[in-house]
Each structure stands twice: as C-alpha cells, then as structure tokens.
Amino acid sequence: MTIETKIIALAQAIAADVKSLRTGQGDLTALSTTSKGSLVVAINELYTLIGSAGASIDDNAVAGATNVAWSADKIITTIALAKSAVKDEIIGGASAAYDTFVELQALMEADDTLTAALSTAVTNRVRFDESQTLTVAQQLIACTNIGVGDPARDFAADYATAKA
C-alpha cells in the first residue's frame, strides 16, 4: 500500500467519523436559538434565557402560581401537611388507640358484640346495587328518610276524596 493510499484511507476514516458525529448531533441550522454554529454556544444561550425568563424558586408563592416554582423541600413539606390533613379528616379525632385500620380490626376481632352491631348496621341499609325485601315499616322509614313519604299511600283514594 502506498503512502498516498494510506492518506486517502485516513481521510476517508476521519470523514466517516465526522459524518457520524454530525448525524448524531443533528442539523444545527434547525436550532431555535440565535446561535446555530455551535452546540456549546446554543446551550449557553438557552441557559441564559432560562435563568432570566424561566420560573424561579419562590417558597412563599401560593399554590397555582405559574411563573414560579417551589423548592423540593417546600414540595415535600406541602405534601406532608396534605397527608396529615387527609389522615385527620379520615380518623375524625379518634384517639391514638383507634386511629389506624389495624387497631380498628383488632378492636372488632376482640369484641363480638361490636362486630355483631356493625354487621347489623350494615345489613339494615337500603341497597342501591341489588334488590332487597323490606317490611312495610322499613319501607315507610326508608321513604321518609329520602323525602318520598308513605309508599303505601292510596293516591287514588286521595283523588276521589278531593273530587267529591
């Protein structure tokens, strides 16, 4: 192999590498930045724009502010406070002995009377997901509770009385 052939092979190898790098970086003319000749200059331009016009961290900002951001610490604190508020709402002031589902489960398992009372209370509910049979008294109470009135009322008799 001659020196000329070796130099041509070297030039072709370098050209292949340059082509690979150019393909990997993309077409710089498609950048939205002012600088299109250098990725480093384009990235620095974006960095400057983001720093001057982007959202800044402001932990005093109210929720919903769109021109600022909270720090990670503020986000974590806000989430912790929200979790605590939800837990307080769910447990509704229950004492520490009964403020978790495990404690409630243990209480129910230990007290057959409570379990029976809860079971009866659940059973004595008007269902909306399937049919059920209610006594006349239960029907009257259920209808009264939802504002319907007496389900056994004879409206035809009321009409006949009013018409007479």
Describe the model.
This protein is mostly helical. 60% of the residues lie in helices and 2% in strands. It has 7 helices and 2 strands, in the order H-H-E-E-H-H-H-H-H. Strands 1-2 form a two-stranded parallel ribbon.
Index terms:
mainly alpha; two-stranded parallel sheet; 60% helix; 164 residues; 4 domains; elongated
**Tally of individual helices:** 7
* Mean pLDDT across residues: 83
If you compute it from the alpha carbons, what radius of gyration comes out, rounded to the nearest whole angstrom?
38 Å
Counting helices, strands and paired strands, the structural category is mainly alpha
Low-confidence stretches: none
- Give the CA-CA distance, first to last residue: 126 Å
Give the DSSP E fraction (strand runs of 2 or more residues). Answer: under 5%
* Biggest sheet: strand arrangement: 1-2
Shape: elongated
